[in-house]
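Tutorial handout. Part one gives the primary structure; part two gives the three-dimensional structure as tokens.
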Amino acid sequence: MKTIVWFGFVLGALSAAGEVILKKPGQKATFQCSVETHTQNLVWNRGNDPIIRVNLKTGFPVKGPKHKDNMKLRGTSLEISGVTEEDAGKFICIADGKRKEVTLLVVSVSASPSSELQLGSEATLQCRVKGLNPPDSPVQWKRPDGSTNSGSQTVQLKSVAHSDEGNWQCMFAYEGGTYIESLEIKVRDPVPKTTAPSSSTSSKDVSFNPPPSTDVVLLGLSWWMWVAVGVGCLAVVLLMVFVIVLCKRIKRRKVRMLRNGRQPLNPKMYCQCHHPAAAAKPQQGRRKEKPSALPLQPLLA
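Part two.
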């Protein structure tokens, strides 16, 4: 019954010039009604489907079957937060016998894999417009150099060039007006790849050209190698001479000791003395005892 009453308002309302609002997904859209205050009932419809109605007697809004959680009434205006492509379409406000139409177009422009493209790679630019009537209205891309790709919402770039960098414009017409949505594209040079040398590479495939050497080479050895060999040989000769001289000195000393009739002392003879030991000193503090008298021997007859 409520739907019939609301539809009666739509048929009996006076038409007004339509308004077009362009939004991207996720943005907020606000639709202004034809009046700021109303003395009769206020109705917001989406096409022919009721969204919300405010009864002047009660002052409380009544939600319709097409109402969504992201739709709120702010005074006489309708606000949609977090716009999606499903929200695109025509909205109608009826208040105090006045009617106002607002068309919401949801436009999404994108570049795949991203808006920063690599030189020589493949990319896809896409422009999607929801809410157009008819739905297949022509959409075209305008390149940074001014040329156009007409009649297609998608542009395929087989090999990205530096000329593709810049501002790409998605253009379309609706009810006598032309609308533009821009997309900024950047082109980057490819990063040079560093490859490590393979360990399985054959020695025949690798050519190594050593830098020219300024060292003097004699018999395949450099001069500093000959100096090292000479120093080593000299050290060995000096060591041998020292050992020979030391051995001769030890031998002469032994011969001299044998001629003098002396033998070298053994370690065990150290600290030994062949002289008689000195008499022990008498202990002080004690008196010397007199020697006892010898026993008398009997006289022989």
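Part three, for discussion. The two ends are 190 Å apart (CA to CA). The mean pLDDT is 76.
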